[in-house]
Amino acid sequence: MPTQFNSPLYTSNHPTLDAGSVQILRASGALIIGKTVTTEFAATTIGSKTHNPHDPNRTPGGSSSGSGAVVADFQAPIALGTQTGGSVIRPGSYNGIYAFKPTWGSVTREGQKVYSLILDTLGWYGRSVADLELLADVFAIHDDAPAPTSAFELKGAKFAVLNTVVWPKIGSGGEAAFSKAADLLRNNGAEVEELSLPASLDDLPHWHATVLSSDGRTAFLPEYTVDNSQISSQLVGHVENAEKISRKAQLDAFDNIAAARPVVDEILGRYAAVITPSVPDEAPEGIGSTGSAAFCTMWTALHTPVVNVPGFVGSHGMPIGVSLVAPRYHDRHLLAVSKSLLWSPMLAAIMDARGQMIQYT
């Protein structure tokens, strides 16, 4: 199938081999029905031609805009996406579907265009946690601990709510969804406490941005060299180091994030899952921009698994999700916890609160 990266430099480009993830899916019996739209190289925040199926005047998010929209619109049951900032979780929230960003490195990225080797993560969308688990099985994602043999028991489980250092960016819809999620957990027997990360990690969003720009210098040099007039100013800026990021700053960001990962793993490991916003608010109007990834980038940098759980609505009736986060390589645990929300009274309360906007299979 044509793989054009939403770039004029790759018009009519037809690779001779599938990406590694698609090879696995084909060999496992999946029917590949098509490619979906992405932003330019799955890298820019300029909107694509895809609209949100709940309101065509609003963005479906990005960069995995087409993948999120095609699942929400019932054109496909499952779709792949990639996340370097918030490009799986954000469309999941905006489109009102389940989204899963596994632990970094859990799924091969062979055959994909690289943006950042230490951030790029392949994830996927579904209309249920069972859909997410199906692909986790296909991609052989397993924790060290044996898979649970029974449903996760929500009553008495310990959760934390974490608003993160970027909380000033939250909107009224995102704040209401976050608060309602915590209330629903408490009302259904879970223990919920407030959590703050150490102040030494407050620069995580800045470190992520530094890594992104630094890795972009390398990733888009080929296209820049061929014809820099055919790539966006954002990518030109990466290659030309428009932000004047020094090599020392680059190394500091790499090393600080690496040091932060085990610290955050230990904190997350104290809970069944940590609840945090997926997005500031419902999908913004217009398709010229893909919305804010502010609440996603730190988890991408930390390499942790994240599930967007849909179920809430904003002031305009548009979907809003919340994120469940766990330590690295606790992917199946996180999916089991997420699935427990399906079988508890919590889901019924969510569905009642959001109406019948989406019918889950």
UniProtKB/TrEMBL annotation:
GO terms for molecular function: catalytic activity. Pfam families: Amidase (PF01425). It comes from Cryoendolithus antarcticus. Residues 45-67 are annotated as: Disordered. It comes from the Eukaryota. This is Amidase domain-containing protein. Residues 1-335 form the Amidase domain. Coiled coil: none annotated. PANTHER family: GLUTAMYL-TRNA(GLN) AMIDOTRANSFERASE SUBUNIT A, TRANSAMIDASE. InterPro entries: Amidase, Amidase_dom, AS_sf.
